[in-house]
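User: quick one - fold this with NAP bound?
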Amino acid sequence: MPTTGHVFIATSLDGFIARPDGSLDWLLSRDDPAEDHGYDAFIATMDCIVMGRGTFDSVLQFPEWHYALPVFVLSQTLATVPDGLHGKVTPIDLSPADTMRRLSEMGHRRAYIDGGQVIQSFLRDGLIRDMTITTAPVLLGAGRPLFGSLPKDIPLIHETTRAFPSGLVQSTWRIA
Ligand SMILES: NC(=O)c1ccc[n+]([C@@H]2O[C@H](COP(=O)([O-])OP(=O)(O)OC[C@H]3O[C@@H](n4cnc5c(N)ncnc54)[C@H](OP(=O)(O)O)[C@@H]3O)[C@@H](O)[C@H]2O)c1
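Assistant: Sure. Structure tokens for the protein plus NAP:
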């Protein structure tokens, strides 16, 4: 059975997932721990995580490794993983389609796809099934974009939208 790709990500209202230098202060400052934005429920339905090297570099800055699932880092430059992450992180240098084929062979059915450039390339190749996008009430003006150019339209089907007291608005879209 083919592996399906699923996105769960937060953006500014103008569509950036990080500032140009990668910082997430605009998002973390709005993350009210009293609100359940559904990350735990989402991750419980995934078998593995595929992230770009940019996102991997970013999560390495956090004090602890917080992924229980196997993580595959898409990169043409990452040769080795840091000490302590062996068995948890696997570098992978394949196209999006070949990555999904490899994951399928390994028995992973549902992959959480993370990182702006990586999401864009998986969308272009028709490998994303749905996207849950949490929009933060802020305009950044510049940053790392979630979306980019496409060879053709990707029609979407709206599934749900919910608004949180913090001002975060979360919508789920299925690729038609
Ligand atoms: N707001 C949020 O919810 C959220 C979520 C995730 C990440 N982020 C932030 O987003 C930033 C990272 O995102 P990003 O868009 O800059 O980078 P990214 O998508 O995480 O990583 C891009 C890198 O992945 C590698 N790569 C390998 N195959 C690729 C392919 N098929 N398509 C695209 N990239 C491929 C390339 O690195 P090589 O040169 O090594 O090959 C490329 O430079 C970080 O600052 C992170 O904190 C925010």
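One thing worth noting: The pocket of NAP is lined by residues 9-10, 17-18, 22, 24, 27, 51-55, 58, 74-78, 96, 114-118, 121, 144 (CB under 6 Å).
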